[in-house]
Amino acid sequence: MPTRRTAIVTGAGSGLGVDIAAGLAAKGYRVFGTTLDSDESNADTAVELAHVDITDTTAVRSWAAHVEEETGGRVDLLINNAGILTPGPLEVVPLDAIRREFEVNTFAPLTVVNAFLPQLRSAGGRIVLISTISAAFPVAFNTASAASKAAAEALMIDYRAELHHHGIDVTIVQPGSTLTGGPARSAALLDRVIGSLTPDERDLYGDALARFADVFNERQGAGMPSATAAAEVIDIAERTPAPSTATIGDDAAALHALIQSSTPEELDALRLQYS
C-alpha cells in the first residue's frame, strides 16, 4: 500500500492558506498547518493545525520534530504561504513594522525550510513559496511587502540551485489579487494608515495614499476566488518538471508580460503613476 503523502502549509488558518490546506487534504495528503492566531481554525478537520510562531526558530524546530514523529520523517510538499502586509509611505511606517514584515515574509520561510529539509530529502519533496507579483514590480506605498517577498524569492532561487542535486524542487508562485479575508483586512489597514497620518504627513502623502488605496481595494475586490487560486497552487506544486516560477491570475500574468516587454524607462513611468 502506498505511503500517504505529507504536506506542510504555513498560514493555514486564514486566507488562501485555508483553501490550500483543504485542497491538499481532499487529494489525500496528510496536512500539517500553522496559524499564529489562537482564534483561527481550519474548517477542514483533516488539517492538523498547530499554533506556531514561524518567526520563532525554537518553536518551528519543535513543530518539525512533532511532524517527524507523526509521519516517520517524510515530507512530500512544503508550502510557505504565511505572510503579512505593511502598507504606507516609507517615511511614515515604523521601522519596527518593516522589520516585522521581513521576519514573517523573508526569514520565517528560511527557518521553516531549514527545519524540514531532512524530511524533504527523505521524500524527494518539493518547496513552494507563495510570493506576490508585486515582488517583481514594487510600487509606492507597498514596497515593504514587495521588498520582503523579493528577498524571500532570492532565497528560494538559491535553494533551488543548492537542493537540485538532493532531489528537492523549489517553485515560486506569484499570485495576483485573490478574494480572501485578506483584502478586507488590507482595506481596513489602509484606512487606519491614512487615519493615523499627522497633519504634516497628510499634506505630504494623503492624496497619493488615498489614490493608492482606491486602486488597491478595487483590484483586490476583483481578484480570483481563493479556492480557485488554491487549486492552481496545488496544480503548480504537483507539476513535473517543477517550474521555477509561476503566476496565478490574469492580472499577475498581464503584469508579468508587461514587465517582460517594457523598457526600464517605461516601467519607471508606470511606477510613478502610483505616486
From TrEMBL:
Coiled coil regions in record: none
The keyword Oxidoreductase is annotated on this UniProt entry: yes
Residues making up the signal peptide according to the UniProt record: none
The UniProt record lists the keyword Oxidoreductase: yes
SUPFAM superfamilies for this protein: NAD(P)-binding Rossmann-fold domains (SSF51735)
Highest taxon in the source lineage: Bacteria
Keywords of this entry: Oxidoreductase
Gene3D superfamilies in the cross-refs: NAD(P)-binding Rossmann-like Domain
Listed Pfam families: adh_short
InterPro entries referenced in this protein's UniProt entry, alphabetically: NAD(P)-bd_dom_sf, SDR_fam
Molecular function in Gene Ontology: oxidoreductase activity
Entry's family note: Belongs to the short-chain dehydrogenases/reductases (SDR) family.
Protein's name in the database: Putative oxidoreductase
